[in-house]
Amino acid sequence: MNKIAVIGCGGSGKSCFSQELGRRLAIPVHHLDRIFWQPNWNPMDKSKFLDAQQQIFTTDSWIIDGNYGGTMQPRLAAADAIIFLDLSTLSCLWGVIKRYFKYRNKTRPDMGTGNKERLTLEFIHWILFYRSTRRPKIITKLDDYSKSKQVTVLSSRQAVDQFIEATS
Length: 168
Prior knowledge:
The protein has 168 residues and is of the alpha/beta class. 51% of the residues lie in helices and 16% in strands. The protein has a single domain, classed as P-loop containing nucleotide triphosphate hydrolases (Rossmann fold, 3-Layer(aba) Sandwich).
């Protein structure tokens, strides 16, 4: 595993997982939220966002965490390993609530400069319907890629912890 895409619902722990995996494997980590969200929560232009990712793809090793469905296909194609944090809706909601209180009025380490932690109804709605709207498409993509790439699906926080512990 040298080029790793980490995907999953908001609150599943992608950023923390990626940071620890990167530390253990000595691979640079790139958080898509940090790239996409410009100061004051202004989104990056989609073509520039894809260009920024393409620059990362050319390096020898990387971990990229984040979903961003509009640019997921090239990211999964460039990866040699895909890790899907497929946690329950309740677990993801809990993760987002904990994160909100931990970073309230602060900028998370995986977020763009000046973007203080927030919790919106739109984001909660996205999490609530992720398993029924987004997950089926991801499962289909992972099935397609499982023939040519290392695909790992982790379905609980315990499985995530065990994966990290087994990685060195």
